[in-house]
From TrEMBL, chain A:
GO MF: 4 iron, 4 sulfur cluster binding; DNA binding; metal ion binding
Gene3D superfamilies assigned: 1.20.930.80
Cofactor(s) the record lists: [4Fe-4S] cluster
Protein name stated in the entry: DNA primase large subunit
UniProtKB/TrEMBL annotation, chain B:
Gene Ontology BP terms: DNA replication initiation; DNA replication, synthesis of primer
UniProt xrefs under Gene3D superfamilies: DNA primase, PRIM domain
Protein name listed in UniProt: DNA primase
Listed GO CC annotations: alpha DNA polymerase:primase complex
Alphabetical keyword list: DNA replication, DNA-directed RNA polymerase, Metal-binding, Nucleotidyltransferase, Primosome, Transcription, Transferase, Zinc
Cofactor(s), names only, from the UniProt record: Mg(2+); Mn(2+)
Organism of this sequence: Eleginops maclovinus (Patagonian blennie)
Segments for region (Disordered): 365-388
Lineage start: Eukaryota, Metazoa, Chordata, Craniata, Vertebrata
Entry annotated with the keyword Transcription: yes
Enzyme Commission code(s) on record: 2.7.7.-
Record field: catalytic activity: ssDNA + n NTP = ssDNA/pppN(pN)n-1 hybrid + (n-1) diphosphate
A Gene Ontology molecular function term of the record: DNA-directed RNA polymerase activity
EC top class named in words: transferase
Length: 511, 429
């Protein structure tokens, strides 16, 4: 792509060739010159599209009817292609299909520049682009799909009719979409299992001796796999050539802006360091923690221990709400030593990982608190774990009981469970927020546990509580139980501590 | 029980003996060097040692077998873990530019730990095991071994007793060592059927059609379920455990749960109760589409292997090495010969105290003769090495090392093919 006018290479011929098809693998970068304004609008609009895809993926089952319908509408609104037929007639208003394809092509390459810079950005970008590609590929007519395979030289080994007969039962039982009749009619491809991981993971394909047997209608998986691999290689290459782009002073600020614009806040920058005292955590966990964190906190207090998954999810969250490294160490140590771990063992076995979270050990990367997506999608809890998202990972029956204990109204509970059933976990969590904060309609869209915390603090009175509470333990006259000390581990017995928490609780209600 | 002789307090005294005279270094090196097919494969491998007082040293690496031997004899680790093959020597990881030191390859590994089955075994809990619940490990090995071979096409699977309450599997095929993180997690998820935490009641849900992999696994589970669950664990005997099973039956318009509860009142024998439940499931299959596999789901929830997916996923995850000692039980982490899986008894696995003691026993005449023979043959060219070989052969470690040798021979056959291919290529150019 050229941003200066030094080299002008542009032929209508290649244009027609490039944009003759509704879908491409983005193998060739655009060669034409474009103005900075166009550069910027294209980029911003594609970002909007990708952001929409991310949101839809959270609220709907991917590729479900409502998902594809919504995505279609959005694509149309943003003037991206949404219909596989090329229509050369100039429409009444708005750009032609050709123009849309050009925009699709160019905007994809601009975002590559902006999103190749870090691992996280790359991962986000690839994920959304892959989802977009999947949607578009599925939308093609069968004939167009075949053409696409041909044009891109995607050839996969077909199994013979005899083999197909021999494997008939297994094939039928491995794919939700196959019946005995369709096996006979369809081509079945045999590829290494590494090329169809999505199908392997979900057990939606027959697997034998390291090969998967994919019926033609599932071919999209391998095509997507191919797309993903190519894109990730291409991004790595782009990253390497980035210094050149970065020296361009017109582009650099724009690219940086783009890459920060839409991935949402990551809550790794601590604004409130030190604003929270350890004594407040118990009361805050009841008032302002999302259910996932409240659950971890509770089990930590009960068992004086947490497994790795819980420590990471909770530890990073606490860091995000403003615990300093020293506080975090104190917090974990004082809880763990009530259990089976003595101080010495803690310092040897666990302190490292706490410091690690703060970027003080190992690779020294500052870890970011987990987003809802991360909590919901990765590392599901198993036996003995308490991390994860309760809306996603708890048995609905147990979730219901828990909500009852937390005094959510019956109608609130049934609304929440309804959302859970529809797999709208974050919306369910938001409903829980509304219920527990007595607000009609939470005016944010939840995508991060730390965001939940901040919004909760806002709803409860503009974050003033944090301030007031910090001072609270230092004012003995305000705490009637007597003998409070600033250092939490000095609180001699647990009863004292419990009472103190209760008292702080009442503070909250005053506010 | 030989393990009763073991006292962890004497570990510092006997470990030196173990590493000097018994640890099978040459086989160990032969394994991790993988025939020298790839350059620096052994040299860039991470080892980590747990020393006395839980001191943990990561990123150890060695250039030769000799160096590994010397170092282990010097450090006398309580426990040895094996990590990944890195882009650089792990002991120099601080000297390379950050970001460039990366884990590249590792065996695909699985870790099955008895503590993950606590909700379905009543004989023991936590770190304890007994012959009754050990059946769970036998089932796990059967199921996973079959799937890894038949479905994924792997051939070189080393199953190892962890020394205490579980088993590990090392898939050593070249293709397995090269798998990406995404591929490892896909394999692990393909193999996982029991989902959910303490908070989940029903942990196995089957949907139609039942995948061939699940059918194959059910064949194994059905073979063990009557003995393991109905007899040994008596899951349909005591009231609470019956309730736990019934909680997994559909509570629907046909009142399956209630109906079974009533039927169970008049019938106490677990086998018959199970038959009643199965009949109910069969009836269900005729009438409804939902929940129709509940008897299968129950069997799987009680018997199906529970994997720690995180261990399998990471390329850089460390796993306890074969032939490492378990510091708590003193038992050696020995490879399990699947031909003898049914009779494998974790309590019969030798402890470090036992084998060290066996060393001190006077030799039998027969042994002496044999060793003289070998001495003559080898012409005493490498006395230390050959003495060590004779040493372990005099202990109950011998049969496990022998099996390990067989495993390595199997692998050698495959990398011989690799080397031939390579040298052919060279000839071509
Ligand atoms: S939706 Fe997000 S914040 Fe809410 S419980 Fe789940 S992970 Fe936590
Ligand atoms: Zn037991």
């Amino acid at each position: 792509m050229q941003f200066s006018s030094r080299r002008k290479k542009f032929t209508t011929n290649s244009q027609a060739e490039l944009y003759g098809e509704p879908l491409q693998f983005y193998g060739q970068p655009p060669l034409e010159n474009i103005s900075l304004t166009e550069f910027e609008t294209f980029a911003v609009e594609r970002l909007k599209l990708l952001k929409t895809i991310e949101n839809l993926g959270v609220s709907y089952v991917k590729m479900s009817e409502s998902y594809t319908k919504k995505l279609g509408t959005e694509s149309k609104a943003l003037n991206f292609l949404y219909r596989p037929e090329a229509d050369d007639r100039k429409p009444q208003n708005g750009p032609t299909e050709q123009e849309k394809r050009r925009k699709d092509h160019i905007s994809h390459f601009i975002l590559r520049l902006a999103y190749c810079q870090t691992e996280d950005l790359r991962r986000w970008f690839i994920q959304q682009e892959v989802d977009l590609f999947r949607y578009r590929f599925n939308d093609l007519h069968p004939k167009q799909k075949l053409e696409f395979l041909h044009r891109n030289n995607l050839q996969y080994d077909r199994i013979t009719v005899e083999e197909k007969k021999a494997l008939n039962d297994k094939l039928v039982n491995s794919s939700y979409a196959l019946s005995g009749i369709t096996v006979v009619e369809q081509d079945v491809y045999k590829v290494p299992f590494q090329d169809a991981l999505d199908l392997v993971r979900t057990r939606k394909v027959y697997l034998k001796a390291g090969y998967v047997y994919i019926p033609h209608q599932d071919i999209v998986t391998i095509v997507i796999n191919d797309f993903r691999t190519r894109l990730s290689k291409a991004l790595a290459l782009t990253a390497r050539s980035l210094p050149a782009v970065h020296s361009d002073e017109r582009l650099q600020p724009l690219l940086n802006h783009l890459s920060h614009a839409y991935v949402g806040q990551d809550y790794s920058i601590q604004k409130n360091v030190g604003k929270i005292s350890l004594e407040q955590i118990d009361s805050l966990s009841g008032k302002s923690f999302p259910l996932c964190m409240r659950q971890i906190h509770q089990s930590l207090r009960e068992n004086h221990h947490l497994r790795h998954g819980g420590r990471m999810q909770y530890g990073l969250f606490l860091k995000g709400i403003g615990l300093s490294l020293e506080q975090a160490l104190q917090f974990w140590r004082s809880e763990f030593i009530k259990g089976k771990v003595d101080a010495d063992k803690f310092d040897k076995a666990y302190a490292y990982s706490v410091r690690h979270m703060f970027g003080k050990e190992g690779k020294r990367t500052d870890y970011t608190p987990y987003s809802c997506m991360k909590v919901i999608l990765s590392n599901a809890p198993s036996q003995g774990d308490h991390h994860g998202c309760p809306f996603r990972h708890s048995d609905p029956e147990l979730l219901k009981q828990k909500l009852q204990v937390y005094k959510v109204s019956p109608s609130g509970i049934s609304q929440i469970l309804e959302l859970v059933k529809g797999m709208h976990y974050q919306l369910a969590c938001q409903k829980y927020f509304e219920q527990t904060h007595n607000v009609e309609d939470a005016s944010f869209s939840l995508n991060h546990p730390n965001q939940y915390f901040i919004e909760s603090q806002k709803a409860l009175g503009g974050g003033k509580e944090i301030k007031r509470e910090t001072e609270a333990p230092q004012k003995p006259q305000e705490i009637p139980t007597g003998g409070p000390s600033a250092a939490p581990e000095a609180a001699a017995n647990t009863q004292d501590e419990a009472e103190m928490t209760e008292d702080l609780d009442s503070f909250f209600q005053d506010a | 029980m030989p393990s009763s002789d073991y006292d962890s307090a004497c570990l510092p005294d006997i470990l030196p003996l173990y590493y000097r005279r018994l640890f099978p270094f040459s086989q160990y090196y032969r394994w991790l060097n993988y025939g020298g097919v790839q350059k620096n494969y052994f040299q860039n491998r991470e080892f980590s040692f747990t020393l006395k007082d839980d001191i943990y040293v990561r990123y150890q690496s060695f250039t030769t077998q000799n160096e590994l031997e010397k170092e282990m004899q010097k450090m006398n680790p309580y426990k040895i873990d094996i990590g990944a093959i890195y882009s650089h020597r792990p002991n120099q990881h601080n000297t390379v530019k950050s970001g460039t030191f990366q884990a590249l390859e590792k065996e695909l590994v699985f870790d099955i730990d008895m503590t993950d089955y606590d909700d379905v075994r009543s004989c023991c809990s936590a770190a304890d095991i007994c012959p009754k619940c050990w059946t769970l490990m036998t089932i796990a090995i059967h199921i996973l071994d079959r799937a890894l071979r038949d479905d994924f096409g792997f051939q070189h699977l080393l199953w190892v007793y962890s020394g205490r309450r579980g088993v590990h599997c090392w898939v050593c095929d070249e293709a397995a060592r090269k798998l990406s993180v995404a591929a490892r997690s896909a394999v692990a998820e393909y193999l996982s059927l029991v989902k959910g935490s303490d908070e989940t009641v029903k942990k196995v849900v089957l949907t139609d059609p039942i995948h061939p992999f699940i059918r194959e696994s059910l064949v194994v589970v059905e073979r063990y379920f009557p003995r393991y669950a109905l007899q040994d664990q008596d899951v349909l005997g005591r009231k609470e455990s019956v309730d736990k099973v019934l909680a997994l039956t559909p509570d629907d318009i046909l009142f399956t749960t209630c109906k079974l509860q009533q039927e169970f009142q008049n019938e106490k024998k677990p086998e018959i109760r199970w038959k009643l439940l199965k009949d109910e499931a069969k009836r269900k299959q005729g009438t409804s589409k939902k929940n129709q596999h509940f008897e299968k789901e129950i069997m799987l929830q009680y018997c199906y292997p529970r994997l720690d997916v995180n261990v399998s996923k990471g390329v850089n995850h460390l796993l306890k090495s074969p032939f490492s000692v378990h510091p708590k039980t003193g038992r050696i982490s020995v490879p399990i010969d699947l031909k003898e899986l049914e009779t494998f008894d974790p309590f019969a696995v030798p402890t470090i105290s036992l084998i060290c003691e066996e060393l001190d026993r006077p030799r039998t005449v027969e042994e002496d003769e044999k060793s003289k023979e070998t001495k003559d043959k080898e012409n005493e060219k490498d006395t230390a090495e050959s003495r060590k070989i004779r040493d372990y052969k005099r202990t109950s470690l011998a049969k496990y090392v022998k099996y390990f040798d067989q495993f390595l021979d199997g692998m050698a056959r495959s990398w011989k093919g690799e080397l031939l291919k390579k040298s052919d290529l060279q000839k071509d150019f």
